[in-house]
Design a protein that fits this description.
Elements lengths: L35 E3 L7 E8 L10 H9 L4 E7 L3 H11 L4 E7 L9 H4 L1 E5 L4 E5 L7 H8 L6 E2 L9 E3 L3 E5 L12 E5 L10 E3 L8 E3 L21 E6 L5 E7 H8 L9 H13 L3 E6 L2 E6 L4 E6 L6 E3 L8 E6 L9 H13 L3 E7 L1 H5 L8 E6 L1
């Protein structure tokens, strides 16, 4: 079954996102060990979200920016980093949406670069005195973290000094869940570390396949979601397949873990040969063994075809890559879910509905986000293109 993109793919962001970056020269001192903590990934109401508004955002021409802004429109604050030349146009677009949030537009200096996958370039920490620190990448021309720092009332950002964790760390009140490929757990010194890992994986492909009887001219691309041969996680970032869902009534941490097999049955699409089913099973077993309350949710693995190149590229349509607000026993928990059941993949609506039902079964109000296929095609989704700067 051929599935072609019905949106323009931005060539600058079509390749897999960088897994990590080298340190740049610090412009300020990183807080000392024992004095820093990451913001929780799910606990508390979202007060302030940061995003990059640029034409490099996948799906920009199809209204992705407007979709993101409307989804965040009920938060107290939204900060948008924009290129200087686009500032007036994007300010007018924002004003025209009539959102309730206070929206700041931060213009990057002429020639500075902005990266649309904000989660990969910005890390936010709380210092022991309650102040905020924003950590950025090595590239002196990358203004993404500096813009996030300005949004927090700072003069810019600080060099992290190690690879940016991106979505490969999830943070509960007392625990940091760290993807095994990150190999850097010291960024948060006040929490216990849980490493999420499977047995080492082989990166699949590229391989020929028979798209129609007798036609072996087509290729399946490498598995873009596995970082490299020997990777110990099935997707390069935790937030693409695992979500924290707050405490169960008995206080046990609830975790949603993506289930590609369930999704495959829902949408009627077999998983490709060599798919790492056992990796997800191993991670589930490890989490249950450590006492966590694990709930599975559909995680579709689908593809787009390029007839000109005769190339099939697989990707995850992840609902795990979402915004979560856990309010404890007080009620009022919410989750903001990306969706994918739109042309050319209407079959994915079954997975969208099942994911919403899983969260509703846990007592969450579900806010459905609309079509996020252009982001999923480039290996990300809602959480990847944002960074939460403050929670209540």
């Amino acid at each position: 079954m051929m599935k072609q993109r019905n949106f323009t793919r931005c060539p600058e962001t079509a390749e897999p996102r960088p897994r990590g970056v080298l340190p740049r020269r610090p412009d300020a001192a990183l807080p000392a060990q024992g004095e820093r903590a990451l913001l929780p990934s799910a606990r508390g109401r979202i007060n302030h979200v940061f995003m990059v508004a640029t034409r490099r955002l996948p799906g920009f021409e199809q209204g992705m920016l407007e979709r993101l802004l409307r989804l965040a429109g009920g938060f107290r604050r939204i900060s948008l980093a924009v290129h200087e030349a686009d500032a007036a146009e994007l300010r007018a677009l924002v004003d025209g949406l009539g959102l309730a949030a206070e929206i700041a537009v931060i213009a990057a200096p002429q020639g500075a670069a902005l990266w649309p996958w904000a989660q990969d370039r910005v890390t936010v920490m709380r210092n022991a005195d309650g102040s905020t620190a924003v950590l950025g990448s090595h590239d002196p021309d990358d203004y993404t973290a500096d813009a996030a720092g300005l949004a927090c009332g700072l003069n810019g950002s600080i060099a992290l000094g190690v690879a940016q964790p991106g979505g490969n760390i999830l943070v509960d009140g007392k625990t940091c869940f760290v993807g095994a490929d990150l190999c850097e757990a010291g960024i948060d010194s006040g929490r216990a570390i849980e490493v999420i890992a499977c047995a080492p994986l082989e990166r699949r492909g590229p391989v020929r396949f028979e798209r129609t009887p007798g036609d072996w001219s087509w290729r399946q691309d490498i598995d873009r979601s596995i970082a490299a041969d020997g990777s110990r996680q099935p997707i390069f970032h935790l937030d693409m397949f695992m979500t924290l869902a707050g405490p169960a009534p008995d206080g046990t941490q609830r975790i949603l873990l993506g289930d590609p097999v369930w999704a495959s049955k829902l949408i009627g699409l077999p998983l490709p040969e060599g798919f790492p089913i056992k990796a997800f099973e191993q991670i589930e077993f490890g989490l249950r063994l450590r006492g966590y309350d694990v709930h599975r949710n559909p995680l579709p693995f689908v593809y787009f075809d390029d007839p000109e190149a005769k190339l099939r590229e697989w990707f995850y349509a992840s609902a795990n890559n979402c915004w979560v607000e856990c309010m404890g026993q007080a009620g009022g928990c919410r989750v903001f879910l990306p969706e994918y059941g739109f042309d050319p993949w209407p079959e994915l609506k079954a997975a969208d509905d099942a994911n919403a039902a899983v969260w509703e079964g846990l007592g969450f109000e579900v806010v459905r986000g609309g079509d996020f296929l252009p982001l999923a095609d480039q290996l990300g989704s809602l959480n990847c293109v944002s960074r939460i700067l403050d929670r209540a």
